[in-house]
Design goal:
By secondary structure, the protein is an alpha/beta fold. It has helices at 19-25, 77-91, 108-116, 151-160, 190-195, 258-262, 290-299, 316-329, 365-370, 458-466, and strands at residues 3-6, 9-12, 49-52, 59-60, 71-73, 139-141, 165-168, 175-178, 201-203, 216-221, 230-236, 239-245, 277-279, 285-287, 306-311, 335-338, 374-375, 385-390, 404-409, 421-424, 433-436, 442-445. The chain has three domains: 3-91, Ubiquitin-like (UB roll) (Roll); 97-107 and 125-207, Alpha-Beta Plaits (2-Layer Sandwich), CATH 3.30.70.20; 277-466, 3-Layer(aba) Sandwich (Rossmann fold), CATH 3.40.50.740. It is 19% helix and 20% strand. Helix 2 crosses helix 3 (108-116) and helix 8 runs parallel beside helix 10. The structure holds iron/sulfur cluster (2 copies) and FE2/S2 (inorganic) cluster (FES). One iron/sulfur cluster (SF4) binds at residues 146-152, 176, 195-198, 200-201.
Length: 475
């Protein structure tokens, strides 16, 4: 591999790598604003300027590929003076609102100002201000904080495939906005907030709910479709506050779609059934004890011919435990997977857009097929009851002629009102597990929060069922 010298250290690099990346590979930070590894390089903020031997002027590290024998200084006096000047320039118009800015704690502008800026400001002029029009349901705009790095414009054009963010006016009046002030249209709008290095574009969903330094982070996999994008659950005190992308160049690169990003909201939905419940006839679902709910679930199947429906939003471990349970206690019961209307097999899955989204709106369709389970098409003849296992995403199909339904897992009112019993289970954030994405990639994820309410993990529910007396259902 070719080598260059950065701050006196010999560093190997891959041909084509720029100096920001090469320096980062050995733990040397070169501060950036406009550079983002997932976007084209425009080299317009000048924050990354460094000294290269034999070059009279400072060079932008983000746009300079490393070369054999190159000698680079990232901490010389000239470099430091440039960083101070760039910070001063960027802050000329920036409001002093860090204490009430939701980006605080993860703001590149704030961090770089602290690390590379000066503590004095020479300007006394009034700061420029903008009117902020509504950008739609995902993003809150606060353009007084914008440093015109154009990451958002490039994200729209290059990744989301939509030219919706633009720079209007010129010079000191330059403003980043949407075309004609229209709301954002992309299904990937949450990424604008991730890539903005300031508090100019923040998530409406997360804003002012929690300071970022209180959040605990757990790596996980999105369950929103069969791509299985890598992401991080961020929670505090057992409440999920947001999900953000985790870089995986093989699967989702740096991005998440909005459906996957905000999917976590069902975990804390007030309509979620979090207590064991049994049918109270016209009074709807009634909360009860676990033992009573299990007995009610079991006895509702007495004398019936049931089938088992397994959501393709369950993990491999859960479905394997379920298969063992069925072999032992309900042998011969037909079993099918369900998840997305019209996508009853991996053959029927496919790209839902040219970016990330897949047609299968559950994460483990591939995994369930690996376990030999076929997709649900219609109720088999003679079947008049169903035990439905659901993780939180799978859409329960219409079940003609099925009078008795028992739900195990995550269910919401009012959809669950006609069930004979609900045994509340855990969402993807409340358990460990393994899933296989549409390409067959095996991915593991970790529990981020404790089971909500009285919900339990599936193996525990199956154990309660197995130990609750005669196991029901066998006609
Ligand atoms: S809104 Fe954010 S990402 Fe867009 S140009 Fe301004 S600072 Fe950069
Ligand atoms: S593309 Fe699929 S897996 Fe990726 S974030 Fe969206 S819903 Fe989740
Ligand atoms: S990060 Fe290199 S010029 Fe902006």
């Amino acid at each position: 591999m070719p080598k260059c010298i950065i701050d006196g250290r010999e560093v190997e690099f891959k041909p084509g790598q720029n100096l920001v990346e090469v320096a980062a590979s050995v733990g040397i930070e070169i501060p950036v604003f406009c550079y983002h590894p997932g976007l084209t390089v425009v080299a317009q903020c000048r924050m990354c300027a460094i000294e290269i031997e034999k070059m009279p002027k400072l060079q932008t590290a983000c746009s300079t590929p490393a070369a054999e024998g190159m000698v680079v200084k990232t901490k010389s006096d000239r470099v430091k003076q440039n960083q101070k000047s760039v910070m001063e320039f960027l802050l000329i118009n920036h409001p002093l609102d860090c204490p009430i800015c939701d980006k605080s704690g993860e703001c590149d502008l704030q961090d770089n100002s602290y690390k590379y800026g000066d503590s004095y400001m020479r300007t006394t002029e009034e700061r420029r201000t903008y009117m902020d029009l509504d950008m739609g349901p995902v993003i809150q705009k606060s353009m007084n904080r914008c440093i015109h790095c154009t990451r958002c414009i490039r994200f729209g054009q290059e990744i989301a495939g939509i030219h919706e963010m633009v720079a209007v006016q010129r010079g000191n009046n330059t403003e980043i906005t949407t075309i004609d002030g229209r709301p954002l249209e992309t299904d990937y709008a949450g990424n604008y907030s991730d890539i903005c290095p300031t508090g100019s574009l923040t998530l409406k969903d997360f804003r002012f709910k929690k300071r970022v330094w209180y959040l605990k982070k757990t790596p996980t996999v999105c369950e929103g479709c069969s791509r299985g994008c890598n992401m991080e659950i961020q929670q505090d005190a057992n409440t999920v506050y947001r999900c953000v992308p985790r870089t995986n160049m093989e699967i989702n690169k740096y991005w998440l779609c909005d459906e996957g990003r905000f999917n976590y909201q069902y975990i804390h939905d007030a309509a979620r059934v979090l207590n064991p419940a049994v049918s109270g006839g016209t009074a709807g679902l009634q909360m009860t004890e676990w033992s009573q709910a299990v007995v009610a679930a079991r006895s509702s199947l007495d004398g019936k011919k049931p089938m088992v429906l397994v959501g393709s939003d369950l993990t491999q471990e859960e479905v394997q435990a379920l298969q063992q349970f069925l072999n032992k206690h309900l042998s011969g019961t037909p079993i099918f997977h369900f998840g997305t209307p019209g996508v009853t097999s991996t053959q029927k899955d496919g790209a839902a857009d040219p970016i990330l989204k897949r047609k299968s709106k559950t994460a483990n369709l591939n995994g369930l097929e690996k376990l030999g389970i076929k997709g649900f098409e219609s109720v088999p003849s003679g079947v008049n009851a169903a035990i439905i296992f659901r993780g939180g995403r799978a859409v329960v199909p219409e079940l003609k002629g099925v009078g008795t339904k028992v739900g195990v897992g995550v269910f919401n009112k009012p959809d669950a009102e006609d069930f004979h019993a609900i045994l509340p289970g855990t969402s993807f954030a409340e358990k460990d597990g393994t899933i296989f994405n549409f390409e067959g990639r095996e991915q593991k994820f970790k529990r981020a929060i404790l089971p909500q309410g009285q919900s339990k993990n599936l193996p525990e529910i199956l154990m309660l069922w197995a130990n609750s007396g005669a196991v029901g259902g066998a006609a």
